[in-house]
């Protein structure tokens, strides 16, 4: 959990500030920013199917440490990138080790959990990256406003990533249902790269990844340019983290009891309300009421945190429940691939929509996509999972 927190802290401490960095340092336009930032997610997406297969086929700790080392080193590349082209290359390539590392780290976490506590344990494990997702942007924004130094932030990300690497080096995989490492698959097939049994779960997760891709990357600029909130992004992420913590504490019992579909449904409905309030309440008041704007902006943070805190571990456990023991890495990579596809589409399409129609239109798109994801779950995905689960 500590290593996973470090991994996502290093990632998210830069996320809300990279659009500002590209705009202020290189003069990049909105659509170019979206294109540059989406490269990271696209590369992670391309590498994750292979990383799931590798994690399931070779010594998991060796794969884990190799991926973490590569992930940490790339932060030094941001410091060296002096042009937009070089930054784009470094950022795009960085997605590779990130994609493989998230699969390896979560699979090892599953290995060291007793099977009787797996659902609950994965829920708490996921809290580590949720907390990083909420806390890191707040810290990054605070440091930036105090120092106006992007270079310092790149150094912080590098140091935190190295700390995570050292932490993972101490992990001992002593039991995996009686084995030290997973069984090697007998044959090579598409199902070794993507868990075909869970295809609809993955497709459903794309919708929710899209929403957070737009939100996490364009929140700061939207608040500044549209709502006139220049220093509220950090508070937004702090409230989001509070929602994540509360959701894990409240949802832990349901996960322990195996009520995965209940947790998923509860989370996505809460998220839908949060995204709707985020864009609708300020718009309905035509941005003339500071109180309504603040309620919509900050209230949505708590709701989106609550929703994602229920949604993510439920979907991850559902995917794992569709997989055999030697397919855990593939199951993890599949749900992460789906999130990456959504994030990448969100960053790219959000940037294009913002350039053509403005940031308000981009966030209205988020609310619509989230609603479609909820509709798909209740009409198809829930029954799909119940009919196919193995564990």
List keywords for this structure.
391 residues, 13 helices, single chain, mainly alpha
Structure description:
With 391 residues, the protein is an all-alpha fold. It has 13 helices and no strands. The protein has helices at 2-12, 18-26, 30-57, 60-80, 84-112, 118-147, 150-168, 199-227, 233-256, 260-284, 290-321, 328-357, 359-388. Helix 4 runs antiparallel to helix 7, helix 8 (199-227) packs parallel to helix 12 and helix 10 (260-284) packs antiparallel against helix 13. The protein starts with a helix and ends with a helix. Mean pLDDT is 84; it is low at 176-186.
Outline the fold blueprint.
Blueprint: H1 2-12, H2 18-26, H3 30-57, H4 60-80, H5 84-112, H6 118-147, H7 150-168, H8 199-227, H9 233-256, H10 260-284, H11 290-321, H12 328-357, H13 359-388
Helix pairs in contact: 1-6, 1-7, 2-3, 3-5, 3-12, 4-5, 4-7, 5-12, 6-9, 6-11, 8-11, 8-12, 8-13, 9-11, 10-11, 10-13, 11-12, 12-13
Largest sheet: none
Shape: globular
How many distinct helices?
A: 13
Q: Distance N terminus to C terminus?
A: 24 Å
Low-confidence stretches: 176-186
Radius of gyration using CA atoms only: 20 Å
Question: What is the H/E string?
Answer: HHHHHHHHHHHHH
Mean pLDDT: 84
Give the helix/strand class. Answer: mainly alpha
Q: How many strand units?
A: 0
> Helix content range of the residues, please?
over 70%
Q: What proportion of the residues form beta strands (DSSP E)?
A: under 5%
